[in-house]
Every structure is written in structure tokens, then in C-alpha cells.
Amino acid sequence: ILLKRLKDVEISVPIVYGTIAFWLGRKATETQSHKWTVYVRGATNEDLGVVIKRAVFQLHPSFNNPVRVVESPPFELSECGWGEFEIAISLFFHNDVCEKQLDLYHHLKLYSEDESGAQSTKKPVIVETYNEIVFPDPSEDFYARVQKHPAVIVPRLPVTINLPSVLATNIEDLNEKKGDTKDHPLSQWFNNFSEADELLKLAAARQQVQAHIIKLRRQLSIIDGLPLQSWKPASG
């Protein structure tokens, strides 16, 4: 079916994917020391079923049925094991969203990097990655379905674009606040992601890069026997 597209419009979906692992304590064995969950969720824990049709998790070959397919939200699975490995996550979208799949990769961590701290059955090891899926030139059907959905960032349409009346009249009914899953049993451990936090991280990284550049320039000046010239990082 050829879907009509909205040109020069972008829809973005903030997602978080990761793992959370609990040590089993006295119940731990050599082959089952941790219980862990791998998942894909909305950035503030919304239901992503409005966009994602199914998720496929590729586990280590040592697991029974290592390729696990999750057909409905929440897009997650839980297992028990003892080793760390890379999990491949493939996201498949609804027909009016996108025909191509999105492949993600996440390394399962069972042990904290803080070696001085003892393992705890109450405090899990959690590793998450924030990302945004961008859908350029979305279909009219997709736009109408998600216009007010809490998991999706939808821009206002340019004044030159009008949705067909058959879609516009149903937007309010289709897009009430659906998909809120903040009562997820693991939500107390999830990280909070925001644009402000990301900007602070980028600023800190930029300062580190600038300091490294200054250090390298000093080393090159000494090696070349040239006088050290003052250098200021570019602003902006």
C-alpha cells in the first residue's frame, strides 16, 4: 500500500534500551548467579507499542532458544545466568511507520565496576543507553495515530499541509494519553534522561577534548623545538 507522506516533517521517538541485573545472593549457583532483564522502553517509561510492532532479542548461543521474539509491549525479557555478553536487539515497526528494522547492541553487565563494593541482592547493576529514532517524511496515518501520544515527539504541521478530514476528525479519539507505563515494577531503578543532562555531558566532553588538544600542542612544540605559542580554544 502506497502511503501518502508528509514532506519536510520529522517525528522522533526517544527510547532507552539496557539491562538490569540482580545478584541472587544465597540462591546463586555457578551457572545461575544473577537474574537480569533486557528491555527497550520509552525515555520516561511510556508504552512504545504505538510505534514498535515487535522486538527480537539475540542472546548468547548457550541459552535455549537464543532468538527471542516479543510481539507486544513491554518489549523485554528476563533470564538467569552467570556470564556477561553482547545482546543484539532488532526493532520492527508498524507498517505505516517504517519498513526497515533498527538493530541495536547492548552489553549485559552483571557486576559493578566498583570492585570495592560488595554485591547486594537489593541494589542491581543497571546499564542504559538513550537514543532517539527519527522518522523523516512520516505517513499521514502514522502522524494521525501518534499526534498526542506521550511516547512520541510530533511537530506542528506547516500551514501549507492539511491532513485529510477523515483523519483529522479522528485525531482526538485516537490520541488520548495512551501508553503510560510508569508503574513498571523496575521503574524505581531506571535512569532519568533529559536534554539538559545531555547538554551538560556534551559540554564536559568538549572541555576534555580541548584540554587534550592543548596538551598535544605543548608536546609537539617541545619535540619540534619551537617556541610555545599561546592558543585559545575556539568559542561557540
UniProtKB/TrEMBL annotation:
- Source superkingdom: Eukaryota
Matching entries from Pfam families are given as:
YEATS
What biological process terms from GO does the record include? Answer: regulation of DNA-templated transcription
A single GO cellular-component term from the record reads: nucleus
Predominantly, its location class is nucleus
Stored CDD domains: YEATS_TFIID14_like
Localization, per the record, is:
Nucleus
Keyword annotations of the record? Nucleus, Transcription, Transcription regulation
Protein name as annotated: Transcription initiation factor TFIID subunitb
Biological source species = Sesamum alatum
